[in-house]
């Protein structure tokens, strides 16, 4: 059975997740927003199989290079944001000088598409393309765990006023890709507390 640890990092309190296999030998990192010491210590002694990005806004990618360099693991991001890791303008870091220095690292090692199934930690990681917050936003579904990025939050949704955002597209993504999942799927968002699909389908005031 997989386990996970959440780390709320940086000025925007972005949720990074370390997902570990049942044997506690291998890990996957989702959205390392900063090179956080506690997160890095969690990885020590583990084989890091991949860094998975729900999208490439600066607050989700600030720790990518530190993790990739230390653990030699590949980075995955959706093809629509393939050049965002290396472009401070596209990932937004150049526009938020009071929050972060410009972030311009290496590009991704692998590109994602909706419908992909990735084999990590002895499990299937299903890729759900959920554009709207950003063009390449994805969720990662592993059994009854959904790492939703900034698409769906507890009683809220991701902002759509950034470049490439679209409210209509986001609402469509939530209704057609996320609300069709079983009620008991645990939603682990990019910011804030966890929730479930059933709760959000019933109580989210933005998308019913």
TrEMBL record:
CDD domains: metallo-hydrolase-like_MBL-fold. Keywords: Hydrolase, Metal-binding, Zinc. Residues 13-191 form the Metallo-beta-lactamase domain. PANTHER family: HYDROXYACYLGLUTATHIONE HYDROLASE GLOC. This is MBL fold metallo-hydrolase. Pfam families: Lactamase_B. Counteracts the endogenous Pycsar antiviral defense system. Phosphodiesterase that enables metal-dependent hydrolysis of host cyclic nucleotide Pycsar defense signals such as cCMP and cUMP. It comes from Cohnella suwonensis.
């Amino acid at each position: 059975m997989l386990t996970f640890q959440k780390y709320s990092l940086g000025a925007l309190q972005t949720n990074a997740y370390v997902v570990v296999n049942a044997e506690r030998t291998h890990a996957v990192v989702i959205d390392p927003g900063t090179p956080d010491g506690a997160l890095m210590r969690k990885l020590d002694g583990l084989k890091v199989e991949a860094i998975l990005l729900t999208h490439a806004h600066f607050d989700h990618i600030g720790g990518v290079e530190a993790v990739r360099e230390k653990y030699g693991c590949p980075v995955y991001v959706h093809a629509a944001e393939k050049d965002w890791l290396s472009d401070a303008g596209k990932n937004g870091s150049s526009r938020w000088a009071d929050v972060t220095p410009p972030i311009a690292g290496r590009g991704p090692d692998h590109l994602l598409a909706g419908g992909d199934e990735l084999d990590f930690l002895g499990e299937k990681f299903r890729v759900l393309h959920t554009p709207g917050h950003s063009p390449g936003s994805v969720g990662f579904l592993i059994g009854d765990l959904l790492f939703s990025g900034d698409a769906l939050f507890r009683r809220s949704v991701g902002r759509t006023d950034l470049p490439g955002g679209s409210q209509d597209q986001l609402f469509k993504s939530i209704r057609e890709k996320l609300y069709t999942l079983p009620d008991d799927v645990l939603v682990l968002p990019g910011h804030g507390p966890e929730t479930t699909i059933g709760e959000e389908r019933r109580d989210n005031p933005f998308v019913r």
